[in-house]
Amino acid sequence: MMKYFVFVILLAFVSAASLQENMQSFVKFATRYGKSYSDIEFGYRFHVFSENLKIAAAQQARETGTARYGVTKFSDLTPEEFRANYLMPKELYKNHKKDPKKVAKPLTPVALPDSYDWNDKGAVTAVYDQGQCGSCWAFSATETVESYHFLSGKSLVGLSQQQIVDCDSDCYGCNGGWTDKAFDYIKSAGGQDTLDSYPYTAQDGSCNFNPSNVAADVVSWTWVTQSDDENAMQQAVYQTGPLSICVDASSWQNYNGGVISDCGTDIDHCVQLTGFSTQDGTPAWNVRNSWGTGWGENGYLYVARGGNVCGIGSTVISLVAN
């Protein structure tokens, strides 16, 4: 009786013409990502999944780049659930001011190659997964400290995102924060513990920072741009190292791969810029995300260069670490 009831609900949610195709896709999705639902929740999540397929199709129709949209690990979440669990409130960065004294002087331009990525230099740790916690700001900061620690001549070592989530009292842990304040916290604390000594839990907790476990610290940091100067970004990532950036990721829920050219500019997520390239003839930024390797292109994505797509040039930080 329950299965018949669920089936009737499903018929109301989607047209008969697309029901079978969507159901097959949903079953494959649930199997791939190890999803398990009660009978009642199954019907609702299938409805959400079907609606996300429509959203992805609309994104694909608008996209002028090479980005592909479709089924992802987040396809059974409503856009509101996705934002609440994986992004930060947009209000955090709307009125966030940059101290003019912290804006870097432009680097002397040098000739740039067609592509360059710090992964090829061994300066980037493996892709992390922040889980259902709006801690992307702590991940973006941590990943960049890891990279610059390596570039200072040390070994590449994983550092504790959880330390920043738990101990940075100027930010809000799983409810969001600012990368510049994260760097300030690391500097004031005297450094950052290793990931092994202070592992990530994907939830807010009490501060358990142990100075004896510090593996890296921050000497200084600067804003690369006062505004969305992507030329300055390209020189900075090439001449100095990976950059901590914040973007509008509200349209990334359904991203499968390729170069994104259609995107908003209201900042709600922080990531790491590892380099630049040309993908299928499109100049692109190489961006490392923190949603695991099962999302995007093995945890990475590409954003079109020029036009401040996804607000990519709005919040860019370079630093000196040791």
List the defining traits of the structure above.
322 residues; alpha+beta; Cathepsin B, Chain A; 2 domains; eight-stranded mixed sheet; 17% strand; disordered N terminus
- Residue-averaged pLDDT, rounded? 94
How much helix is in the residues? 25-40%
* Rg value: 21 Å
Task: Please state the oligomeric state of the protein chains shown.
Answer: single chain
CATH superfamily of the largest domain: Cysteine proteinases
Number of strands: 12
CATH topology of the largest domain: Cathepsin B, Chain A
- Which second-level CATH architecture of the largest domain applies? Alpha-Beta Complex
Number of separate domains: 2
Give a structural overview:
By secondary structure, this protein is of the alpha+beta class. It folds into two domains: 2-62, no CATH class; 79-321, Cathepsin B, Chain A (Alpha-Beta Complex), CATH 3.90.70. The chain contains nine helices and twelve strands. Strands 2, 5, 6, 8, 9, 10, 11 and 12 form an eight-stranded mixed beta sheet that branches. A two-stranded antiparallel sheet has the order 1-7. α1 (2-13) packs parallel to α3 (39-62), α6 (136-151) crosses α7 (161-167) and α6 crosses α8 (179-189). The longest helix is centred in the first third of the chain and has 24 residues, at 39-62. The N and C termini lie far apart (65 Å).
